[in-house]
Amino acid sequence: MNEKLTLTELQLIIKDSLYMALPDMYWVIAEISEMKENYNGHCYLELVDKQTSENSVRARVKAVIWSSRYRFLKSFFENATSESLREGMKILVRVRIEYHEIYGLSLVINDIDPAFTIGEMALKRQQILKKLEEEGVLTMNKELDFPVVPQRIAVISSAGAAGYSDFIMHLRDNNFGYVFITTLYETPMQGIETEAGVIRALDRIAARLEKFDLVVIIRGGGSQTDLSWFDNYSIAYYITQFPLPVITGIGHEKDLSVTDIVAHTSLKTPTAVADYLVECMNNTDNYLIELSNGIFDKARNILEDNKMRIDASRLKLIPVARMMISEFKEDLSGILIEMINTGKDYILRAGLFPARHKSRLISGARSYLSSKDSLLIREKQNLATINKNYLNNINGRISGYNNSLKILDPENVLKRGYTITSLNGKIVKKRMQLKENDLIDTRFSDGSISSKVV
């Protein structure tokens, strides 16, 4: 063919040939690679078809949804899926092929099937969960011990998010006056930066594990699309391997994300997370109060038992001491009488015993009696000292028990910043003991107040 054509003429031939060969509408499965809305309300997309590995693009084409049709399709799709069209989403669309002399080949989208996208999203979530289960890590974070006092909290969120502000306010203004130490690790909580941002924050927390008791991942409510960024294998895997318990409050109203499923504890909203942490602290507080009361009762019983033992010992010691003194006196009297009789017998047998021997004998007898008196006095003093030391030892132990009792006294516990809440004179140990409109009394170290449960 020797006919010479202009470029425009060739483009028109291509255009006519395409329209003649492909005049119909076609249902096409593709992934949104790029998506932009212009000021006129038109939506321009780039659609791709990838290999199963999602790394290799096999086909690429431009597409457009004109504004008059886009308004309807956008509303229809969001109502059906609770999702917005976004990059990375796989869709099934009905298209017409269009060829322009300047802009080239493109697809004009006329309709969209939301059921296909819903199925793809559910399938992707199930594939991630199955992979984590096969790797044996799905419940690893749930198996960690939850801290008894969850007070030092690493928070992964966006600083300007309303959910983060509500979380901090609920922790700070809790009714019990508990103090929480929070450290924010700011990161995007939606969009393509979510994965890298959350993982980076977890890495930074891991470098300071000794500073924290647990990790909280929170964001406020949003569309299902905003929250679907947490259906992510990499984020989920990092959480399963993390050495601290992770609590999520990502704002899902219906389904749980993969991140929620692998976390130690999943709650609906950031404020629910804050309330949960306050409740954990209150449970620990009530346990300590119960423990303190048990120690107090035990110490009181020990003191009463020892007091009874001291009284019994005292009653036993008094007659024993009297008997010992009486026995010493009897022994001394017997020795004295024996010495006198012996002296008399000796003098009678000796006859003319020299006077100096008599004097020496009398002196020896007196000296012997004096030594026995001294021995009796020393024994008496030793007995008194023994009794005194024993009683002092017992009194010292009683003083120690009294000091321990004072330390455990509820008044002193109140002075250390604790309070005691009661309902109809009975101490409230759990929140479930209360119901709406109950009148409760809260006792402080300097008095008490009454309040109504709302």
Q: What distance lies between the first and last C-alpha atoms, to the nearest angstrom?
A: 91 Å
Number of strands: 14
What is Rg? 47 Å
CATH class of the largest domain: Alpha Beta
| Low-confidence runs of at least 5 consecutive residues | none
Total discrete domains: 4
Strand order of the largest sheet: 1-2-3-5-4
Name the CATH architecture of the largest domain.
3-Layer(aba) Sandwich
Binned strand content:
15-25%
Task: Work out the helix count.
Answer: 11
Q: Indicate the CATH topology of the largest domain.
A: Rossmann fold
Global geometry: rod-shaped
Structural class label:
alpha/beta
Strand and helix order: HEEEHEEHEHEHEHHEHEHHHEEEE
Main sheet? Answer: 5 strands, mixed, barrel
| Chain-averaged pLDDT | 84
Describe the protein's architecture and organization.
- With 454 residues, the protein is an alpha/beta fold.
- It folds into 4 domains: 7-112, Nucleic acid-binding proteins (OB fold (Dihydrolipoamide Acetyltransferase, E2P), Beta Barrel); 138-268, 3-Layer(aba) Sandwich (Rossmann fold); 287-408; 415-452, no CATH class.
- It is built from 11 helices and 14 strands.
- The protein has helices spanning 7-21, 67-81, 114-134, 162-172, 194-206, 224-227, 233-241, 258-262, 270-350, 355-407, 410-415, and strands spanning 25-37, 43-50, 57-65, 90-100, 104-112, 152-157, 181-186, 214-218, 246-249, 265-267, 420-423, 426-427, 439-444, 447-452.
- The protein has a 5-stranded mixed barrel. A 5-stranded parallel beta sheet has the order 7-6-8-9-10. A 4-stranded antiparallel beta sheet has the order 12-11-13-14, with no helix packed on it.
- Strand 2 (43-50) and strand 3 form a beta hairpin.
- Helix 2 crosses helix 3, helix 4 (162-172) runs parallel beside helix 9 (270-350) and helix 5 runs parallel beside helix 7.
- The longest helix has 81 residues, at 270-350.
- The chain is rod-shaped, with a radius of gyration of 47 Å.
- The protein starts with 6 loop residues before the first helix and ends with a strand.
